[in-house]
Amino acid sequence: MTNFKDLAQIRRSHRKFTEEEISPEDVQTILRAALMSPTSKSQRAWQFVVVEDKQDIDKLADAKDLGSQFMKGAPLAIVVLGDPQQNDCWIEDGSIAAISMQYQAEELGLGSCWVQMRGRGLADGTPADEVIRGVLDIPSNLNTLCIIAFGHKADQRKPQNEDNLKWENVHADKY
Questions:
Q1: Cα–Cα distance between 101 and 85 in angstroms, integer?
Q2: pTM score, whole prediction
Q3: Pseudo-torsion of CA 106, 64, 38, 99, nearest 10°?
């Protein structure tokens, strides 16, 4: 197991994956991290759709115009959903679950990349959420926050360089 300090330094977004499938055990471990993530008032109101079907992943990649085409090479995508009527912190709770999955994937030696879907869409005005809802039969009360693409890394990324940390963005006591 990698200590968290090192894990935070080595976790980078990966957009290139090998064709190797992710084991069911690793998928379960990734989902376990999401299901254990903290939520507002312990509501645990998020929902996750695990997508391994290549055609569905390709359709999800086309849900917005920019920044999602790389998903067509991913063997696994997990859609993070929330119900704004049930939980006013659905965005925050979903974000915590999403990054928890990404850190867990990194600890397993897998790559991942967040694909923003909330507030995004196609040039014709179709919201990404509407496209995703149609592909995966998602109920109308749920909104899509993001999709996390996962896979075995096909590229190497250097760890975060500590010399580039923006400590000037940290303020003590007052801004």
A1: 25
A2: 0.95
A3: 20
